[in-house]
Each structure stands twice: as structure tokens, then as C-alpha cells.
Amino acid sequence: MLVDAGVRYLFGNPGTTELPLVDALVADRRIRYILGLQEVPVVAMADGYAQASRSLGVVNLHASCGLGNGMGMLYNAYRAGTPLLVTAGQQDRRLKFEEPILWSNLVDVARGWTKWAAEVDRVEDLPSAIRRAVQTALAPPTGPVFLSLPLDVQTEVAELDVTSAARLDPRVRPPAEALRRAAEVLAAARNPGILAGSRVVEAGAVEPLVAVAERLGAAVLSESGTTHGRLGFLPDHPLYAQALPLWSPEVREKLAEFDVLFVVGMDLLRQYVYHEPARAVPEHIRLVQLDQDPWQLGKNYPLEVGLVGDPRAGLTELAGLLDETMTPAAKHAARARGEARALAHHAAREALWRRSDEERDARPLSPLTLMSSLARIIPDDVAVVEEAVTTTNTYLERLGALKNATGYFAHRGWALGWGLGCALGVKLAWPERPVLALIGEGAAMYGIQGLWTAARYRLPVTFVVPNNAQYQILKVGARQLGLPAASSGQFEGMDLVGPEIDLVALARSLGVEAHRVSDPHELSERVVESLADDVPRLFDVPIQRGAPEKLNY
């Protein structure tokens, strides 16, 4: 049934309660088992594979302990809406009253971060459970599901109907009247803007969103770094206005110029640290929102028009309606807006490049120097996985280095340890594309075991670790909270020193070639070579260790 659902890989770390499934794979090679040494990278691999392939990811965990270890990554998948089937072996039901080792109520544990969770009590129900799980995970809004599989159910033999789940077409267009009202509001706007989220690229809707933006001459902003998972717009497009700021006051300031905002495929809003004013979207702005997920429409801010439906279908039709609705004067104003935006965005990009040149001789490297060294050399079809937010700081977008919207991944849950495993899953989904993973040294240590999987299966991912030997995001957060010791530059439990972690030795011990690189030119050369090669490599790059007062995109 999984094969019929298009499943090619099963990610897992087995235990006794999973042995019947693993044993069956010995004689059936249609699904390849990808072994990980710990559940954090295992679930992250399945997440990355599902996000990149837009197909079902399947992961098999070991009873209570395995599910517990993987819960942080399940939270990330839940926040990202990843179509993921998580299974876990359960103890033999005949031992249940003994409260045996490794037994617990797995369904209750998983239910909060899944669309649906169930335990299969009869082998006869297994086909229905799989069909329901597959369809639920893939139906918009997509998301993870969970099945608990008792050991004795796995070993039963029965004649079953294993007809696979029907493949549903999720592309449901928004209502025609709502689209027409949206076109009228946007066409009449004096200064419209667009907020684009991850679900735009996941719906294959970047191209029609570009068409809508160009008709309106509207600036397009992506989600804040706290929820900036995928790219809903082309980063090198003249209308791309980068990511929203992180904090409410700066968001209000950034959005104040707009009279109408068109929000597509994003959560409005999920903030990180509370600031006054609590309302990040200015009161004068009229909102039009399009999303497959009805829960997101008007969730926190009242809407002028709410559009429930597939972003690609809705945006394609909306572009045509704007052509019909906009007056010649409105079209002329849109062209003028677009040209002004393009000039301003180009000037900001050039200023950032000049700043990177000014910082290039500093040692240790500044975050901007590291990122600009990569921006100069990454290929157009690269897939970038980021889990180093205080270093990466959306620099690749701001420098215009990313030439496609599909190949960018950052997590939306912020449970650490995700990036390394995610990059391996992306590589399995896209073997023909180079994959670059930018992983902070702190985040890497939550899922470092994934390097062994990269070596075992010869997955040619290039890992660059910006290493400042600290949890810098926590220092920034402590200062944002106005905590007294942090405000005077003193921190507890946030520096990874005494001893420092030898990432090069650690990577090599797990079978991955690794080097410490301190020069930006050498880094560029080594990454070019690595992205073109067929083996995984890790580069540990020391960067400046100071912590800024706040993050500014």
C-alpha cells in the first residue's frame, strides 16, 4: 500500500517492536530503508524528503522512547504542514495490563501535533488505517499523521483488501464572487503590498503570484525569520522586498505605507517575543487573504475579503481579473510603483554588497562575509537548508543570490536539530540538485548523528557550520526581554566553550570528510568543489563571537 502511494523511502531507527516491518523489507526492495542513529535526524530526514518531493514522507520509530525522542521534529513538521506518516511499534497487546517496558499511550502523545492519530487494534483494520492516514496527510491543509502498530498485530496473517488510497486532486478554486471582490479591492488600492508565505511555493503558485505582483506594482515581503520556512516569491525579482522584521514595532513601521495588503499562503502572524504595540499590522490597512487552510483566514486580523482555495488556481484567476478590473490610470500607477520599488530594492542590494566588501578582511569572519562568500558561488539550482538564523540573517535573499524559490528550506517550528537531517531528505528527493546546509554549531549538536547516515548512503550534501561557539539567538532574546544581566553583557549557559566542540574530528569520526576554514576565498573554492562532488563534506567556519543587541533584517 505504501508503494502504491508513491513511497520510496522508509526512514527509521528500529527496535524490537518494529522488527516485523524491518524484516519484511529484507525480501521486498521496492522501499529503501534509510537508517539513522537517533530519532531527531530520522524524523527530520522524512520531513525534508516530504517537503522537497511534495509526496508522503514515512518514518518508523521505536515505541515510547523513539516517539519521545522524535517529538521535537514532529512539532516542526506539524508547524510546517508536512505530509508525514509517522509510525511507531507498540508493545504486544497481551502484555498491556502488565504495563510492560516501552509501553505507553502513544496516540495521546502524538495527537496534539498531528492531524490524526490512531492505534491499529486489529490486523483487519490496517488497510483502512493506511488509506485514511495517507489521504489525511496529503489533503489540504497537509500535515503529519500517526499510527501505533502493536507487535502482535504486525505478526498476524490475514487476507486483506490492500487497495491503495485514491489520489485526490486538492486544487479547489476560490469562489468566483470572492475573487472578483478581491480584484476590485486590490485594483483600487493606492499602495498595495503582498505578504507571501511558504504555502505559495508548496502549491506551485510562485509564477502566478509574480504575475499578480507585477500587475499591481506591489512590493512582496516574505515571512519573518521566526516562521520563514520556504520562499513564496523569487528572491532576485525587482519587487521582492525581503522578509518582514522580527518584532512588532518594526513590522508596523515596515507595513505602515500600505493601504491594502494581499496575504497569500502564510500565517498572519506568528511572533517570537511580545512587544508593544501587540498588534503588528497597522489598523488602517485593509486585508485580502488567500489560503488553502480556512483556519488561517481572519484568524488574528479581520479581513476585507477572505479566499478559501488553492493558491495556484486562485492567483491565476486573480491575475486575469486584475487585467479586466484595473483602469488605465491604475495600470499606469502600478507601473510607476513597480519601477520605483525596483530601483529602491536594487540600491539596498548594492549597499549590502559594498558592506560585505568592507568586512571581507576581518578575522574571524563576520556573518555577512561568510554569507557573501557563498552568495558569489552557489549555482542557480542549489537547494539551501538553513538552521543558523543569527548568521544567515536572510543574507542570501538580500544579496539576490537565490535564483529559484523552490530550493529554500528553513524550519517553522524552531525545535533544534532539524536542519542537518532535513538536508539529507532533500537530497534523497532531489538527487540531481546540489544541496547546501547552513547549520549553526549549537543546532548541529542536536542532530549530529545524521552525518553517519550521510556517510553510509553517500549523500553528497555540503554542510557549512558558522561557528560562533554560543547560542547567540538566546543572547539576543535575553536582551530583547530587557533582562538585567543580559543588558550588561553577562550570560549563563549560552557559551559552548570550556571545552569547545571539535566539529572536524566529530564529523570525521562519523565518516564525513571535514575541514576548518577561516578564509572567505578558500571557503568559496571548497564549497564549489564540494557541491559538484559525490560525497558529503563539512566545513567548520569560525565567525565573530559577539552578539548584536537585536536582529535587523
Features:
3 domains; six-stranded parallel beta sheet; Rossmann fold; about 550 residues
Can you summarize this structure?
With 553 residues, the protein is α/β, with parallel strands linked by helices. The protein is 40% helix and 16% strand.
Describe it:
The chain has three domains: 9-155, Thiamin diphosphate (ThDP)-binding fold, Pyr/PP domains (Rossmann fold), CATH 3.40.50; 176-345, 3-Layer(aba) Sandwich (Rossmann fold); 359-542, Thiamin diphosphate (ThDP)-binding fold, Pyr/PP domains (Rossmann fold), CATH 3.40.50. The mean pLDDT is 95. The protein has helices spanning 19-27, 39-53, 63-80, 106-111, 126-138, 151-155, 176-187, 198-202, 206-216, 248-255, 311-325, 328-358, 367-375, 389-392, 395-398, 418-429, 441-444, 450-456, 472-480, 484-487, 503-509, 520-531, and strands at residues 9-12, 32-35, 57-61, 84-90, 116-119, 145-150, 192-196, 219-222, 240-243, 260-264, 286-291, 305-308, 383-387, 408-410, 435-439, 461-467, 513-516, 537-542. The strands form three sheets. Strands 2-1-3-4-6-5 form a six-stranded parallel beta sheet, sandwiched between helices. It is globular, with a radius of gyration of 24 Å. 40% of the residues lie in helices and 16% in strands.
